[in-house]
Amino acid sequence: MKRRRLLAAFAAFALAGCATVDVADYSSERPVLDLARYFDGTVDGWGMFQDRSGRVVKRFHVRIDARWTGNTGTLDEHFEYSDGTKERRVWTLVKDGDRYTGTAGDVVGTAQGRAAGNALHWTYTLALPVDGRTWHVDMDDWMFLVDATTLLNRTTMSKFGVKVGEVTLAFRKR
Questions:
Q1: Is the dihedral of CA 110, 165, 74, 148 positive or negative?
Q2: Residue 144, Cβ neighbours under 10 Å: how many?
Q3: Is-contact 35 95, C-beta < 8 A?
Q4: Whole-angstrom Cα distance, residue 108 to residue 134?
Q5: DSSP class of residue 40?
Q6: pLDDT one-digit tens code per residue, 98-152
Q7: For residue 6, what pLDDT is reported?
Q8: What's the whole-number mean pLDDT along residues 25-50?
Q9: Is the peptide bond before 31 cis (omega within 30 degrees of 0)?
Q10: What's the angle, vertex CA 35, arms to CA 32 and CA 41, rounded to 5?
Q11: Mean pLDDT for the chain overall
Q12: With contact defined as beta carbons under 8 Å apart, do 112 and 101 qualify?
């Protein structure tokens, strides 16, 4: 009997550890994040990729040229990495109330996101080139608007449910 209680307590503790944050938890936070308002014009970002041990593997700058027509936005991202490599990703975003969907050439399927207050939670699968192969990596992406020009972004990358790294970004709207 004592063993069962111990196992039940352990199971409850383990399940509580799996609880995730809901974007609605930020609904009263200000300023309110509206991607169509923030990503309109040119936005610069500085970031880094860390592997699962926390070691910084790459640093980068990204320039985003963004525009919206109605509820559809285009984010044209130009990356320059610390090793000199360059990359471009063009997102097409669609806003539907507090929800966003998005597609890009290296995104598998459609990204799904929801905004509340100053936050956006965004998930998608990225086709990531690694050592001559392509990995499909799950991206769990959070954005937080700090003020009218500053947006912080943290993304956890995982494969088969195992964390493979993190991306941290700070954006500044021109």
A1: positive
A2: 16
A3: yes
A4: 12
A5: S
A6: 999 999 999 999 999 999 999 999 999 999 998 999 999 999 999 999 999 999 9
A7: 44
A8: 98
A9: yes
A10: 120
A11: 92
A12: yes
Helix (H, G, I), strand (E, B) or coil at 67: strand
Q: Are 165 and 157 in contact (CB under 8 A)?
A: yes
The Cα 123–Cα 54 span in angstroms is: 21
Contact present, 91 and 105 (Cβ < 8 Å): no
Predicted local confidence at residue 164, as pLDDT: 96
Report pTM: 0.88
b/e code 15-32 from CB counts within 10 Å (16+ = b):
eeeeeeeebeebeeeeee
DSSP letters spanning 106-167:
TEEEEEEEEEETTEEEEEEEEEEEETTEEEEEEEEEEEEE-SSSEEEEEEEEEETTEEEEEE
17 in the Ramachandran plot: left (φ > 0), alpha (ψ -120 to 50) or beta? Answer: alpha
Contact 97, 86 (CB under 8 A): no
73 contacts: CB under 8 Å, gap ≥ 6: 35, 36, 39, 40, 66, 67, 91, 92, 93, 94, 95
The total of other beta-carbon atoms located within 10 Å of residue 95's CB is 19
